[in-house]
């Protein structure tokens, strides 16, 4: 840990901003794990939509696929200029909002009950946002602390 602290003082300029970015990334990581809370809100989803357990398992499958397929987030990070993780974070935030908002609207009765494939798409989209948060935060931390890659990845995950 000593070399981690020493590196932040001796690396290229703006070390205080690297620390701010690291702390912000940790907070984003803490708040972006909503797909892990599926067991908390799935009873409301099951009850309000009239799903059986098999249908709920199908929706949960799309949650797992969305949360683990991060190719698009990596491509977006590579395509955006270096030092711009906010582009990837914004894309993730939009996906998360759209997916969870549409699920909430269906549960709350604000929209007509969507067909199961559409609900699976909402869940996939919401969970897929997590890969964008992970990519932006982990890659930015590794770029900001190149000599402490293992430590910052450990902090992020």
TrEMBL record:
User: What keywords does the record list, in alphabetical order?
Assistant: Membrane, Transmembrane, Transmembrane helix
Pfam families hit by this protein: Nodulin-like
Q: Which superkingdom?
A: Eukaryota
UniProt main location, coarse: membrane
Q: Does the keyword Ribonucleoprotein apply?
A: no
Stated membrane topology is:
Multi-pass membrane protein
The residues covered by the Nodulin-like domain are 18-157
Cellular compartments annotated: Membrane
Q: Which residues cross the membrane?
A: 20-41, 86-112
Entry's Gene Ontology cellular component terms? membrane
Name the UniProt record assigns to this protein: Nodulin-like domain-containing protein
* Species the sequence originates in: Nymphaea colorata (pocket water lily)
| Taxon lineage | Eukaryota, Viridiplantae, Streptophyta, Embryophyta, Tracheophyta
